[in-house]
Amino acid sequence: MSRKHYPFRMPRVVLGIRAQELRTLSRKAWWARRWISALEALRLGSRLGRGRQYATLGQVLELMMDGPHVEATVAGSRPEPYHVTFDFTALSDDAVDRVEGRLKAEPMLIARTLAGELPTEVEEIFRMEGVPLFPAGGKPGNYDIVMKCSCPDWAKPCKHMVAILFLLGEEIAHRPATLLSLRGLSMDGMFPVDEGMEGRGLSVTAGMSVSSASVDPAALMLRLGPVPYWRGVSRCMESLSKIVRRVHETALEAAEGKSIDLR
Q1: C-alpha distances in angstroms, 204 versus 210, 212, 249, 250?
Q2: Measured distance CA(216)–CA(16) in Å, rounded
Q3: Is 0.90 topped by the overall pTM?
Q4: What does the longest C-alpha to C-alpha distance in the chain come to?
């Protein structure tokens, strides 16, 4: 009795979350390179490439983060999507207090992290508490992340999990504070509110020229990096920057008293 072999079929159109910068991720900041290197060190074989493909094609339908706990649904070859969960090894309550104390003693470390950088000193502080910032491997299946997937693949992490790890890596590349959150440390409230600083924001002075032709109105927005967990085919920031520049031009024309057509 012969056995039938059915070819793998990937859904043609999946309106899920699409990775936007996986090709250039390893050339970005050192923490982005370390994340990718950590995944490659897990010796996943073909699952690494398949997971990258899943992330790029938008197979991840949902992705929710709650500190060290991550949940996601991923579209696969079966009609029902697979359910994936990650639980990262996190700091204990006592360790959180110690890490917060060390960070508050060096406010610049907090400021740089919130500004989108990751000082190497932060990784050392976590290492002192025995908690790695980046995925740490060992023997296959013996990782510092408890991971589960409802797919029938016995290997861990499977390609569905790898897709999630790639999306997390893209988020971490632009917002490294996500790394700290995955290890149980929230940056919220690290800086106490200084009442004396209230009301000291920028203001527009009467008579100030609104013309600023030498400044790209979309420059600040572009520095934010790609929108996390984007579902569109084209890159979000490229499309938005065109809209922002056009709105800027229209606003300048209106300020100069020119007639504009908003239809």
Answers
A1: 9, 14, 19, 19
A2: 31
A3: no
A4: 88
